Amino acid sequence: MSLHPKGFDLSLGRITRLLERLGNPQDRMPPVIHIAGTNGKGSCAAYCRALLEADGKAVHVHISPHLVRWHERYRIGRSGAPGQYVEDDVFAEAVRRVAEANGGEQITVFEILTAVMFILFSEHPADAAIVEVGLGGRFDATNVIEKPAVSVIMPIGLDHQAYLGDRIELIAMEKAGIMKPGVPVIIGFQDNEVAREVLIDTAERLGCPHAVYGQDFLAYEEHGRMAFQSDAGLMDLPLPRLSGRHQIANAAAALAAVSAAGFDISHETAERAMETVQWPARMQRLTEGPLPALLPEGSELWLDGGHNPHAAAMIAEALAGMQDRTERPLFLIAGMINTKDATGYFRAFEGMVRHVFTVPVEDSDASVDPRELAENAVAAGLTAQPMTNVEEALRLLGEGWNRLEPPPRVLIGGSLYLAGEVLRDNGTPPV
Asked: Is the separation of the CB atoms in 16 and 107 below 8 Å?
């Protein structure tokens, strides 16, 4: 981090040059499921992993960013067993090789880490590799894979406008940049018709066989179960283990993607995957550790790293579904960085949240001051007050709680960096 800029410099020239010096490991990967999108791409990766591992496959997984430890970016597949995060010595050696090949030339941290991913995944045997795009698609460092098994585009919304453009069609074009001629494409749920049409038009222009959510495949809740419908027929499955109605569409995209990549997933395997899937900091309930213990007995503490208005709308919908079951006062503890639409994020919770506590994102130089963030929340129609940190906010809630009221439901959100800090401080990092 001290040697290389941590911002984004979107182009493929540097990563291509570096990979050539390393012998082009990206050309020796297992079949790749390449996933782009504004929201849901991490969840889709988690479902793809769960489906393939439930079928006994060895699966590499690349995600970005990590929450607590750099190792989370690289899960190394094992045959007949769940994959594990890369070991220290293996990771360190791969970083050393990449740094040596780069020779001190200008390059970003993400490009270094992407080259590390290609080394690790090409040199460890596996049945598949799931590769999540870092930012955008067309010029993302992962987009040097010439022929993935399938390209997946998850829901598209406004985010990273400084890099990708300030109109939805421009962002959709950037995401569509991962499509390759003739390679199957899965287009996940899109609530924006313009984005959907851009993706379909690009797939048709490139001659990509494509399946579109709501047209070629679909999933919905019925009688407390998930129904998944595609050209192959109907699957009656358990509801996904991950919370929120939006996870049904994410699971459907993964089911379609794994099939398009050439893997035949049985009904029994799909059932097992829905019940075992894991994805930290995405509507994750924290039940153990020092932070939940600060709240009154019977409270609920939830964590979600969603950080843009589209993600906030999905989180708000998930929380509204919980309120159908239990009427609890809802509180929000939020920290954000200054590249995000804070007011747009808060607006999704108008009329739902009793009060907002704003906190700094301590691990980011781009953290919004809690006082300014509280003003954003007020501008969105909420009441808010700045706090020193998450622990202080939870302690204030716990010590001042009126025991005549139902125990509260608390969401910590607004930033993946903040989510990582919470998991670290609570002693519950991803495993």
From this structure: no
Task: Single out the residue of 254, 274, 10, 265 nearest to residue 153, CA to CA.
Answer: 254
Residue 146 DSSP code: S
At the second CATH level, the architecture of 13-276 is 3-Layer(aba) Sandwich (3.40)
Cis-peptide into 65, omega within 30 deg: yes
User: Max CA-CA distance within the chain?
Assistant: 67
Residue 330 sits at φ, ψ, to 5 deg, of -110, 130
Burial class (CB in 10 A: 0-12, 13-18, 19+), 278: middle
The structure tokens listed for 276 are 């075992």
CB burial string 216-230: b at 16+ within 10 A, e below: ebbbeeeeeebbbeb
Q: How far apart are CA 187 and CA 210, in angstroms?
A: 7
Q: What are phi and psi of 154, to 5 degrees?
A: -90, 180
Q: Which CATH class is domain 284-425?
A: alpha beta
> Any idea which residue has 């800029």 for tokens?
5
97 class by beta-carbon count within 10 Å (0-12 exposed, 13-18 middle, 19+ buried) = middle
Residue 103 burial class via C-beta count within 10 angstroms: exposed 0-12, middle 13-18, buried 19 and up: exposed
Closest CA to 185 of 220, 161, 150, 142: 150
Q: Is the pTM of this model over 0.85?
A: yes
Sheet holding 218-222, edge to edge: 218-222, 225-230, 233-238
Q: How do the domains of the chain map onto residue ranges? A: 13-276, 284-425
From first to last of its 431 residues, what are the pLDDT tens digits of the chain?
A: 777 655 556 679 999 999 999 999 999 999 999 999 988 999 999 999 999 999 999 999 999 999 999 999 999 999 989 999 999 999 999 999 999 999 999 899 999 999 999 999 999 999 999 999 998 899 999 999 999 999 999 999 865 444 454 689 999 999 999 999 999 999 999 999 999 999 999 999 999 999 999 999 999 999 999 999 999 999 999 999 998 888 999 999 999 999 999 999 999 999 999 999 999 999 999 999 999 999 999 999 999 999 889 889 989 998 998 865 568 999 999 999 998 899 999 999 999 999 999 999 998 889 999 999 999 999 999 999 999 999 999 999 999 999 899 999 999 999 999 999 999 999 999 99
